Amino acid sequence: MPISLNTTRCLLCDAKLVKNGKTAAGSQRWKCPSCGISSSRKRDDVTRKAQLDRFLNWLLGKQSQAESDGLTGRSFRDQTAWCWRIRPALPKVTDPPRVALIDGTYLADHGLLIATDEHQTPLAWQWCSSEGTAAWTALLGQVPTPLVVCDGGTGVQAALREAWPDTLIQRCLFHVWMNLRTHLTLKPRTPAGQALLGLGRILLHIDTTGEATHWLQLVNDRWSEYGHLTTERTYAKKRFANGLWDSPTGKQWWYTHERLRRAYRLLADLIKKQHLFTYLTTGCPKTTSRLEGGINHPIKQTLRLHRGMNREHQMRAAEWVLIKRAGLLHTAHTFVTDKVINPPKQHRPLLTEPDPGPALYDTGLTADEGLWLRQGWADRG
After folding, report:
1. What is the pTM of this model?
2. E strand segments, 194-290
3. Is the dihedral of CA 264, 269, 274, 279 positive or negative?
């Protein structure tokens, strides 16, 4: 006799069941024509699929958990708690994209590095504690060598030299402009700074190779006129007893126009590496703005709508946003594995010696705990 509840035979008389309407929940009701017993089938896979759909509709939508179940949200959390254990992933990139846009964003105390194509389709992501060379190398290793557009952040240059040494690079011109603003401010006092800031404004609107050539000539002219200012030094006149000088850097001398020097060196380095006008010959984007607005903004918007999530939940939410932007949300059920459904239990390690337990009374705490020591009555003055 069958022992499963999910069967088409009666568990008592083994007669074939027939359909007998629907239950209040909308499930199919079955009845035995021989003994008259009524029952309904239960399928855990269908239940999990429905729960995952509800979970994703809430996570990627604007409703609260209470609005999702129509009550207080407690039943919703109980039914979908297992969904947080799912770890979605993008498929491996086999065909090199024509262009890859790479950028990083921060969620609380952890960073997320993202690579997309020119159509804002995510290709890969990498979690990290900071935008270092190792993190960028791990991201670039997931994508075949394309033409890359980046903002030139910390560690990305070294990672590009290691992972994609022969690829063409386009620096985000908007980030170049922001770097110039940081060095020069929007109201530089010197004519040299004003001229260089004007060149930065023109850089954002160059659309032809002729305009690029004219801009490079203007940079050369301004260097001939003001370049000597970048090497001028100011010397301190007083030295303290500890060996430091009375100067902004504590040294004997410093560059008089340090901000101007940094701005000129920024442009000179990009011009030398030919990272400014790659878009004119390849047709690639000249900024990473489409990644900022099309990928990073939806992630931040999702975390804002469902603020209060812990670190792990924030990471899962960001990954589901990327899966949705990649058009792969219909494959969400393929990420459900046995480990997700039946996670391994965390067993407490057995102690080899009896646990003495906490001290009944103590006068202080160890310094490793970072807490203040308590003073006994005898130590108080």
Report:
1. 0.78
2. 233-235, 253-255
3. negative
